[in-house]
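Work Package 3 (structural annotation) set out to generate three-dimensional models for the target panel prioritized at the project kickoff. During this period the team completed the workflow that converts sequence records into discrete structure tokens, so that structures can be stored uniformly alongside our sequence database. As a representative example, we reproduce one entry of 136 residues exactly as it appears in the project archive.
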Amino acid sequence: MKWKVTHVRVCLNLASVLVLLLGLGTSVWIYQRATNASKSILGYEEGGGSVYPVTPEDSKMFIRDLELYGGKANVFAYQLRRWFAGLWHGKSLAVIVGCSAILISFALFYAADHLPSRSESDTSGKSSQEGTDPKP
């Protein structure tokens, strides 16, 4: 029984470290290679000392048409869908991969840390066996 619990604990700790290293490495690689450029940029607009890309979806006429045909809920749904689609591209994808790797690694380490120890498993096994045996 000792070998099984120790073996599972070691495997979970090893998996935790492996997930963390691979996930963070992949995250850094994605972040370095990613660009946040959109293909639908019509031009650029200057304002407040910064330059912003202009897309057709940012125009007031487009937003007005969305609201005309579907109401405020349509505009909200479009903006939510656009935000969610933007999470899976560019540098934001690298952040999501890194955070996911950290969370999964922590979960594996937590599971390994909270496995029953040898003394707990032996005492619980003895008491359950003694309780089932009839006394002479």
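The chain has two domains: 1-34+99-120, 37-88.
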